[in-house]
Design goal:
The chain has 92 residues and is mainly beta. 0% of the residues lie in helices and 64% in strands. The protein has strands at 2-6, 11-24, 27-32, 38-42, 45-51, 54-55, 63-65, 71-75, 78-83, 86-91. The two termini are 23 Å apart.
Length: 92
């Protein structure tokens, strides 16, 4: 599936991933390929993803490689849309 993470500063990530985990208002949840369409508000926490999408040059320091091999990005809030194997995260 395709992941795009956008902040007011810039588009931080674009590319193919195998999973995305986000801090939703009802708790953390994961999306895999062919997940049902969803729109959700995001709370403070980490957006985690597995795969090797392109991280925009100059923003690499915002991402941490976790011990489980997933990449993570700390956010304070945001929104998410998942539709037709495309995940768009608008994060603060």
């Amino acid at each position: 599936m395709h992941l795009e993470i956008v902040t007011p500063e810039a588009s931080l990530v674009k590319g193919e991933v195998t999973s995305v985990i986000v801090p939703g208002v009802n708790g953390e949840f994961q999306m895999l390929n062919n997940h049902a369409a969803v729109v959700s508000l995001l709370l403070e926490g980490k957006v985690k993803f597995e795969g090797n999408p392109e991280i925009t040059e100059g923003f690499e320091e915002k991402f941490v490689k976790e011990s489980d091999g997933k990449w993570s990005l700390a956010i304070t809030s945001g929104t998410l849309e998942m539709n037709n194997n495309k995940v768009i995260v608008l994060a603060d």
